[in-house]
Every structure is written in C-alpha cells, then in structure tokens.
Amino acid sequence: MTENKIVRKPGVCIPWEEKLKELPPIKGDAELVKKVWEDTDALGYIYIWHCLLSF
Amino acid sequence: MAKDTERLYGERLKRYVTALRNGKPDKVPIRPFVAEFTAKYAGYNCQQVAHDYNLAFEAACKCAADFDWDAVVANMVYVWTGLTEAIGTNYYAVPGIHVPAGTGFQYREPSQEKAFMRPDEYDALIEDPTGFLFNVWLPRVSNDVVPAGEPVTFRNNLSFLKGGMAMMQYFTAFGPQVQRLRTECGTPGAIAGILKAPLDIIADKMRGYLGLVDDLMEQPEKVLAACEALMPHLLHVALSGADPQKNAPIAIWMHRGCVPFVMQKHFDTIFWPTLKPIIEEIWARGHQTLFYAEGKWGAHLDAFAELPDQSIIYHCDQDDIFQVHKKLHHKFAISGGVPNYLLGVGTPDEVRACCKKIIDGVAKDGGYIMDASAIVQNDAKIENVKAMTDFTREYGVY
C-alpha cells in the first residue's frame, strides 16, 4: 500500500529517501551509498521504459 | 588504411552533420535506414538478424563497408527477439517462430478487449507511470511476469533476471559496434536515442489504436493527463541515449498521432502540446530530433514549423516531399522521399530518375539527406539500392 504513494521521478524506481528509511544509521560514506543506490536503481528504470519504448 | 578510414569517417560526419543543420555540404549525404535489407545483402534471413544480433551487426557492417553511405544505424533490425523471448513478450511475431524465417518481425496489436491497459486505468497510469508499467503493464505483455499480489513464480523471476541481463548485454554491444563501423568502414552513426510521442505510446503499447480513439471521444481529459504524466519520462529516456557529441539526432518514431488517425482537434489539443515541449527541451540541451514521420503528416507541417530553427530534421515518408520542402526547408533539413515500392518493384533507371527529381527539387540549397521513404526491408532489390546510392553520389555534388 505504501508503495503506491511513492512519487517516482524520471530515472527512479525506488527513491533513495525511501530506501534510507530501511537502513540502519549509515556509519561510513552516506553519499557513496546514495550514489550507488541511485545508479543501480536507474537500471531498473531503464529496463522497464525500454521494454515500453524500444521493444 | 586506418588513416584512410578515419579520414573517410571525418568527411562523412562533416557532410552528414552539415546537412542535418540545414546547411550545404560538399555532396548530398546518403543515410538509408536499412533494416532487413542488410540481411538480404549479407546472405542472412530475417530470423538470423532478428534473433542473433551479432549477425545483424555483421550485416550492418558489410553494407556499410560496401556502400558509400555517409551514416548508418548500428542495427536497424532493432528488436532483438532473443531478448523479447527471454522477457516473455507476447506482442511480437518472431521470424522463424511465429512467422516464416524470411519475414521480418511483426508487432501484433491485441484486440480492443485485450488491450494492455483498460479504459478505467488512466488514473493509475497518471499517478505513477513507472509503477504502472511494472505492476500492471508488464504482466500483461509478458507471458511469464505475474501481476502484483499474485504468488511469485520461477518463470516470473527468470523473466526479470534474463531480461535484465540480456538487455544490458545488448545495449553494451552497441558501443563496440559503433566503433567497428568507424574503424572498419569509416561510417558514422546516424541516430542516437529514442523518443516516442506520449499519445503514440498510449496507442501503440497501452490502449491500442481503437481503444485510444474511443478514449479521445469519451474521456479526452484523461488522455491528456496521461500524456502529460508520460512527458518527463519520455524526455528522460530520450536524453539518456543521446549522442554526447551532439552530432547524431535523437529519433522519434511517429505513428498514429496525425490526421486522419486522430482528429485535428486532438492533434491540436493533446498530441502536439504534449510533444512540442519535449522537442524544445531536447533542443535546449543541444540535441536535434529526427522526425521519422511514418505515413502522412502533411496536415501538421505548420505546427512543426513552430519549432526553433534546426531543432528537427523532417523525414518524409508518404508526404509530398516537394510540398514538405516548401513548408519546412527555411527552418529544417529534410530526408527521405524515395518510395519503398520503387526500391522493391521498380528498375534502377526508375530509381535514378526519382533521385534526380528529388535532388533537383529538394536538395539544391542543401539541407537534404538521401534516404528511402520508410525503413528498407528485404523486399528492396539490391540493384535499386545501389542505383540510389551511386546516382546520388555522382549527381549530388554541390
């Protein structure tokens, strides 16, 4: 149910802000965790939109 | 030899880009969108190039090496059916499986009752387009993906795993293919990135054409809102595949947003207001858009002329190319115009006469790129494609 209320911007499947809520306090480089999350999350976005547009 | 190929690449790129910008290069550039024709020329069938993209890449390279073309698409037989089969996609007729091996892949639109999106689902699409695609659309277009909330299956999991890895494999292979075209053939890439109009994508992949026209009459405000919701995503995907060098244009494949598929008022109030801002934003970021105007879009040339100078290249399919030239040449380059039926059933002399007429009437001041009207498939005769190429090279010198 909560997933339906997520506002997904272009390029995003699961926003970092949502993922962050699930994580314990980050002990190391939070920006690195955020960047890598967003980069890999974008692959899911590319997958579904190319299924729609390209294939 | 490598230096010669690199010099050739540079000459062709300059020629192509000059014409794309509506300028006058040294010669009329030649950029045929050759799809299954490449298979025919290279000795493959449609199944081989659709189902094994390495063979499609080979065929594209063989054509680029043998024909004096200024730009090509790295693989115009774009749909790798190995990938769509891995996902479980159910709307393709795959060569060698659903249609004969010698027939190109086909898109099969479902009946209106089995459309991939129901008429009462616009709000869900509008609220969360990406979520809708994953949760509602994909389970309907894939035989393996189960709808959200239903028990997960082995086939469901494999669809995402194999589909994701296969898509990555395919997209990653384009980089070396583009480099190979450059180093082995001296041929630049013709396009980079993909765009479709919001209204077209609703017709093509969601509601179907018949469903869309019902909706345009019965709930046009929902169609407009859905198009508006799709806009930022379509822009994002288009820019994510664009040429970092800003030479090759993003291609928009234009399908059913024109009169008479839709009424003029629906073009004016829905199709164009939800496409024009995307094109303007793409141009603001420094990229041109190639309007691959499949069919006839002549009723909308005045609307297209509202766009900034040089922001698009208008590819002419079944419109009167001389009328298109009158209306658009002062702002945009034009490509295409050689009828595919002529390449299929005409003679080389007839092809040469057609090319002469186009070059005389459309290319005189530059801003023209020679191409067939539509994507060249395996019905085109090799001698006719040669005639189009060789005549343009000889006669199309400024």
Q: Can you summarize this structure?
A:
By secondary structure, chain A is mainly alpha-helical. Chain A is built from two helices and no strands.
Provide structural commentary:
The complex is a heterodimer of chains A (55) and B (398). Chain A is built from 2 helices and no strands. Chain A is mainly alpha-helical. The longest helix of chain A is centred in the C-terminal third of the chain and has 24 residues. Chain B is built from 17 helices and 8 strands. Chain B starts with a helix and ends with a helix.
Rg measurement of chain A, Å: 13 Å
Low-confidence stretches of chain A: none
Order of helices and strands of chain A: HH
How many beta-strand runs of chain A?
0
Q: Specify which chain pair forms the largest interface.
A: A-B, 23 and 33 residues
Radius of gyration of chain B: 21 Å
Helical content class of chain A? 55-70%
Our count of helices of chain B gives 17
Backbone shape of chain A: elongated
Task: Describe the SSE topology.
The complex is a heterodimer of chains A (55) and B (398).
Chain A: H1 16-22, H2 30-53
Chain B: H1 2-20, H2 36-42, H3 46-51, H4 53-66, H5 81-87, E1 92-93, E2 106-107, H6 122-127, H7 129-141, H8 154-185, E3 194-195, H9 198-218, H10 220-240, E4 250-254, H11 264-271, H12 276-284, E5 289-293, H13 301-304, E6 312-316, H14 321-328, E7 333-336, H15 340-345, H16 348-362, E8 368-369, H17 382-395
Parallel strand pairs in B: 3-4, 4-5, 5-6, 6-7, 7-8
Antiparallel strand pairs in B: 1-2
Main attributes?
heterodimer, A: 55 residues, mainly alpha, B: 398 residues, alpha/beta, 53% helix
